[in-house]
């Protein structure tokens, strides 16, 4: 790709579809850009075109299809990063085989069984702040809840969670706030840690997801040791990020639309459609990267040469007026809701049901136990993590009516 006529993009617009649209040269669904880390890409912004790209078998995850001049940008997909053999970076048939094992372990029944424990963790997290009448809901709830849930699901000891969080933050800050050396070091830590976890479950199986994955393997769907460890890493490091942002961004959306918050508080039947609208209105994921044209690919009216990098913008796809009426309006009754915040096609987020469940419990509990909830600062004072991959608030300070001790 000739970068001379590409639109250079900074981090800030990626989480803001209206701002990003203003930075692009035209209103078409495919744009030649340079990402904030310097990587050239075709950025797909149309809803239908994003779905097309996510379903096209000629757009692959394998870095072998990438033009050689792109390899220096590949970060988590580079050969320096040891845990790359997971389903997110795999193409069929390897992807099909890996996902079969994880899906057999990560069942809807197993997820729904977590509801009482998710409620219990949520109550435990909120209990210390309820008498105070003020809190940072990122630090108090949105961050620790998904970490606690995924760690319990995979059997990570409570004492290890702080260190796990530190290295996971490094991984999810890739291409923006984390250096290549820091990401590689974090990967080495996860490699040692997942090795210990897997060996522990082989010796002493339990009621956890790793044990279930080991039990789910058969002759048709076996994982190598590296594939197993890589998929455990994927569930650990990436498994909580979408949920953190769903909860934080969702609380912010409700706080900025108090009439919608009041309606949901009065009628919990609307919570399911409200969660889908939160996912559309402020996507937890700012961009999906690392797809490469294994052969020339046509998306919309644009012919993309073999070897080029294709990135996708869920926020802009979620605001596409061709698919979404009144896209800038926060409508908790919107149905159907054609958002692509969890992806589409074979790589649709396997943890989406768990994220929705955690969001349902978190929002419901906050609405129940924090009457008078309001932002403690003007919305323009809020800041975001410096990443163009995920859209996460640094903090969400709020006030509410304090509970009596």
Topology, please?
Elements: E1 7-8, H1 17-23, E2 30-34, E3 40-44, H2 47-55, E4 59-60, H3 94-105, H4 108-112, H5 115-126, E5 134-136, H6 137-142, H7 144-154, H8 161-172, H9 180-203, H10 209-216, H11 225-238, H12 241-256, H13 258-266, H14 271-281, E6 288-293, E7 297-299, E8 302-304, E9 309-312, H15 314-318, H16 352-369, E10 374-375, E11 397-399
Parallel strand pairs: 1-2, 3-9
Antiparallel strand pairs: 2-3, 4-6, 5-11, 6-9, 7-8, 10-11
Q: Find the CATH superfamily.
A: Cytochrome P450
Report on the biggest sheet. 6 strands, mixed
Q: Do you know the CATH topology?
A: Cytochrome p450
Assembly level: single chain
- Low-pLDDT stretches are none
Topology as a string of helices (H) and strands (E) = EHEEHEHHHEHHHHHHHHHEEEEHHEE
Proportion of β residues? Answer: 5-15%
Number of E-state strands: 11
What's the CATH class label?
Mainly Alpha
Radius of gyration, in Å, reads 21 Å
Number of helices: 16
- Number of spatially distinct domains: 1
**In what order do the strands lie side by side in the largest sheet?**
1-2-3-9-6-4
Shape: globular
* Helix percentage: 40-55%
CATH architecture: Orthogonal Bundle
Q: What is the arithmetic mean of pLDDT?
A: 92
- Helix/sheet category: alpha+beta
End-to-end C-alpha gap: 63 Å
In short:
The chain is of the alpha+beta class and 405 residues long.
Could you walk me through the main structural features you see in this protein, from its secondary elements to its overall organization?
The protein is α+β, with helices and mostly antiparallel strands and 405 residues long. It has a single domain (3-399), classed as Cytochrome P450 (Cytochrome p450, Orthogonal Bundle). The chain is built from 16 helices and 11 strands. The strands form 3 sheets. The protein has a 6-stranded mixed β-sheet with strand order 1-2-3-9-6-4, with helices on one face. Helix 1 links the parallel strand 1 and strand 2 (30-34). Helix 12 (241-256) packs across helix 14. The longest helix has 24 residues, at 180-203. The mean pLDDT is 92.
């Amino acid at each position: 790709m000739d970068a001379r006529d590409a639109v250079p993009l900074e981090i800030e617009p990626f989480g803001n579809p209206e701002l990003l649209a203003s930075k692009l040269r035209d209103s078409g669904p495919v744009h030649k850009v340079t990402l904030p880390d310097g990587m050239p890409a075709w950025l797909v912004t149309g809803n239908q075109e994003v779905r097309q790209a996510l379903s096209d078998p000629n757009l692959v995850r394998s870095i072998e299809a990438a033009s050689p001049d792109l390899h220096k940008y590949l970060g988590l997909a580079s050969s320096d990063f040891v845990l790359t053999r997971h389903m997110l970076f795999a193409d069929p048939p390897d992807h099909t085989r890996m996902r079969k094992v994880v899906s057999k372990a990560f069942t809807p029944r197993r997820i729904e069984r977590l509801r009482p424990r998710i409620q219990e963790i949520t109550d435990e997290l909120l209990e210390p702040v309820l008498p105070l009448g003020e809190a940072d809901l990122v630090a108090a709830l949105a961050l620790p809840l998904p970490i606690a849930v995924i760690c319990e699901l995979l059997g990570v000891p409570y004492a290890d969670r702080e260190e796990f969080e530190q290295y996971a933050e490094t991984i999810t800050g890739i291409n923006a706030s984390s250096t290549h050396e820091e990401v590689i070091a974090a990967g080495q830590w996860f490699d040692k840690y997942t090795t210990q976890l897997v060996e522990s479950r082989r010796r002493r199986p339990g009621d956890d997801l790793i044990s279930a994955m080991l039990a789910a393997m058969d002759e048709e769907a076996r994982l190598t040791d590296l594939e197993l460890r890589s998929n455990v890493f994927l569930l650990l490091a990436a498994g909580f990020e979408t949920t953190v942002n769903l909860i934080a961004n969702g609380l912010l959306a409700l706080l900025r639309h108090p009439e919608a918050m009041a309606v949901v508080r009065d009628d919990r039947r609307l919570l399911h459609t409200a969660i889908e609208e939160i996912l559309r209105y402020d996507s937890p994921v700012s961009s999906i990267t690392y797809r490469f044209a294994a052969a020339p690919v046509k998306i919309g009216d644009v012919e993309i040469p073999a070897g080029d990098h294709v990135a996708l913008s869920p926020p802009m796809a979620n605001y596409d007026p061709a698919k979404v009426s009144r896209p800038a309006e926060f409508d908790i009754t919107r149905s159907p809701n054609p958002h692509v915040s969890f992806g589409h096609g074979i790589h649709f987020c396997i943890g989406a049901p768990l994220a929705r469940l955690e969001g349902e419990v978190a929002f419901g509990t906050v609405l129940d136990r924090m009457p008078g909830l309001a932002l403690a600062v003007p919305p323009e004072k809020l800041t975001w993590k410096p990443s163009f991959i995920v859209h996460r608030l640094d903090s969400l300070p709020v006030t509410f009516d304090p509970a009596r001790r």
